[in-house]
Amino acid sequence: MTLILNRRGFLAGSSAMLALHPFSVRAQGGQAHLRIMETTDIHVHVYPYDYYADKEIDTVGLARTARLIEDIRAEATNSVLFDNGDFLQGNPMGDYIAYERGMPEGAMHPVIEAMNTLGFDASTLGNHEFNYGLDFLMNSVAGAAFPIVSANVVTTKGESIIEDETLVPPYVILDREITTGDGETHPIRIGVIGFVPPQIMNWDRKHLEGKVEPRDIVRAAEAYVPKIREEGADIVIALSHSGIGAAEHEEGMENAAIPLARVEGIDVILTGHSHLVFPGPDYEGHEGVDVAAGTIGGKPGVMAGFWGSHMGLVDLMIERDGEGWRVAEAEVEARPIYERGEDRSITPLVESFEPVLESVAQEHQETLDYVRRAVGKTDAPLHSYFALVADDPSVQIVSNAQRWYIEQMLAGTEHEGLPILSAAAPFKAGGRGGPEYYTDVPTGDVAIKNVADLYLYPNTVRAVRITGAQVKDWLERSAGMFNQVEPGQEDQVLLNPEFPSYNFDVIDGVTYEIDLSEPSKFDREGNVVNPDASRIKNLQFEGQPIDSEQEFIVATNNYRATGGGSFPGADGSTIVFEAPDTNRDVIVRYIVEQGTISPSADANWHFTPLDGTSVLFDTGPRAAEYLNDVKGVQIAPAGDGPDGFARFVIRL
């Protein structure tokens, strides 16, 4: 079937006339402006809604990106729209469909419904498409009114890559008609090939083992792209659900965009997976890319953020080349749906596109009912009122879930058998947030939206492999939360107001004391200022002093593992596992699997006793209700603190 590129029925008459792109304006006979649009990593974010917080937001949503699509198509004489994968999983709507409503044969997935509404030309599979199993995946994509391609997921191996049987078609050639600068129309054949990280076999082994096998991204491209050209493709576009990583090819690499772009015959590369933006400051100075020119491995390329935050644009000026077409010029842009002010305020740049909202309105309401309903129970209250002074249930549940997840992910790997620790910090712990800014989930039912109270940020899980000495220094860095105190003095101020609570990591799996009489080894920025200081005392693993040379796995998040907070042992070089899942999703899965969770803190750390010494700290007034639950510390009310806080005294 041949389609006219600049005719999309659902948008007819819906957009005001916008200024044409310069390529459309100056194209002559034999020349045409082709605009390639990309969405990526939508993760079921159709509505501009944070289901965890249960409120509308302006930073996400395919419905918002859709409004960009409407305008962007109006700026170009010819356009095509592609999605780069990770559309089936990633927020509570995705979990609702997978775990509650189900995807029987013939059912329609809401994100596919929304994509059909927008008239996508093709998509590829991302790694998260496999999270719910192959039956769920195949039943979901069966409803797509557009081809879905992936060249490196094999169900049956052949004598060569080109003879492999793939899970979905490895590529598609789109027959289109394109309008040139003189108003004439001509046929054009656009080859579209897709790729996913081979690491799907690590991330979703339980769903995939014995059923599919991944191929190396670049090797698959080298096999298929010549075939696409032989079949008459004028232009080849790679839908690479793979990030921008090392410039040189390594077998089985996860982030292969640069060496993939260098494969002969590929004209344009659309990337994703990393939840970053290209072109833009995320990749300034990165080897193998040119941010100013918008090229990846020398080819025009784009990465359009995540959750609908941006629309990726690659504008091509193409020229007739004999019977075919060639790329003469290219411009690249990642266009946002919002802007962030210097004061961190958010200004939306577009409104939602109503037809997209209407297409999934029922599932949106069902998801709201789902997140407001209990998915498990807790037999102890989850609160953070004392999270900075004693082992705490709200931090404990995060640590438990991370450790549970990493144990599964590292099974069968070279790291299996190493002791697994878990590092987590309190996010809602008063401070500048005020006396109400604390986690407070009572005993009983736990709803999905409560998870936002436990874990504020959309971080993803990471695991690092470090030594016992680095574990100790990690905790020394964390202990910068506290002021140094003078032994024998009463009512000294405990907390350092310049130290953020999200950098107060508690590490579960070891036991330790914090000696407040010692100075902090590190300053606020993580620089060593007192090299001989040792606040961490009696650090033990399995009841024995920790071996400084022994290796440990520490479950944490992407912020910490890549250097956030400047923690020893967490600078990006020690990462051994990068999870595709957010910490929030892992906590939800943990609660669902456990049914009833028991998050009461195990008091694996406490302050070193100091005779005749007491300290003061301020927390939320409701803390008094949980005073009897605090373990490992002598604490008592001490009147009112400033600005609505309650004051407590700890006798060391």
From TrEMBL:
Gene3D superfamilies: 3.60.21.10, 5'-Nucleotidase, C-terminal domain. Residues 34-275 form the Calcineurin-like phosphoesterase domain. Keywords: Hydrolase, Metal-binding, Multifunctional enzyme, Nucleotide-binding, Signal. Its cofactor is a divalent metal cation. It comes from the Bacteria. Its EC number is 3.1.3.6, 3.1.4.16. It catalyses: a nucleoside 2',3'-cyclic phosphate + H2O = a nucleoside 3'-phosphate + H(+); a ribonucleoside 3'-phosphate + H2O = a ribonucleoside + phosphate. It holds the Pfam family Metallophos. Residues 389-568 form the 5'-Nucleotidase C-terminal domain. It is found in: Cell envelope. GO terms for molecular function: 2',3'-cyclic-nucleotide 2'-phosphodiesterase activity; 3'-nucleotidase activity. Its main location: other. Belongs to the 5'-nucleotidase family. This is 2',3'-cyclic-nucleotide 2'-phosphodiesterase/3'-nucleotidase.
